[in-house]
Amino acid sequence: MLRAGDVVIAADGGARHCLKLGITPQVVIGDFDSLTEDELASLESAGAQVIRHPARKDFTDLELALQHAGSCGVEEILVYAALGDRWDQTVANLLLPAAPGLEGVHIRIVDGPQEISLLRPGPPCEICGQMGDTVSLIPLRGDITGVVTTGLEYPLKGETLYFGATRGISNVLLGDLAAVQFAAGLLLCIVIHSIQDR
Questions:
Q1: Other beta carbons within 10 Å of 22
Q2: CA 71 from chain center: how many Å?
Q3: What is d(CA 183, CA 139) in angstroms, rounded to the nearest whole number?
Q4: Is the dihedral of CA 7, 10, 15, 18 positive or negative?
Q5: Domains in the chain, please, with CATH?
Q6: Mind listing the pLDDT tens digit for each residue in 20-46?
């Protein structure tokens, strides 16, 4: 999914994933509790900018990376390797797109065939994929009222998705594109792409 002109920012140990793929990140950021000094020196000699933060800090390495990307004026961020064995880190990473200062950036967390993004109120939000892909809409920050969807097998026509309930789980794309619109709140959108998408 890497395109020409993309900026690659590695959050601490994420640099190892880059190197395994033969990618030198432009920026490596974090407290570097997951990388050795030799690895950092190697990254710097390959041209990576290393931005070091103290271990005792108020942000995770991923949040620092997202803040840095947002400060560069990017409009879209793809995040890889953000889900893992630690539930605290995983849940926090899923909620990071709602952090202050990232409102104007479209952030997608990619994990295998799954893409996770945060939808905000306003104009219709597009959901891209292929017919048969699974789409789930999960309310954050309380109930989401006036939800209108198009292009999904089970449409919503100005209805409410209640916080903590599962009505928005396991809908299905009817084509390559769907849309959802609502007036207030935040929705977590998870698209599970079927095999033919890949």
A1: 6
A2: 17
A3: 13
A4: negative
A5: 9-111 (3.40.50.10240), 117-197 (2.60.120.320)
A6: 888 999 999 999 998 888 889 989 999
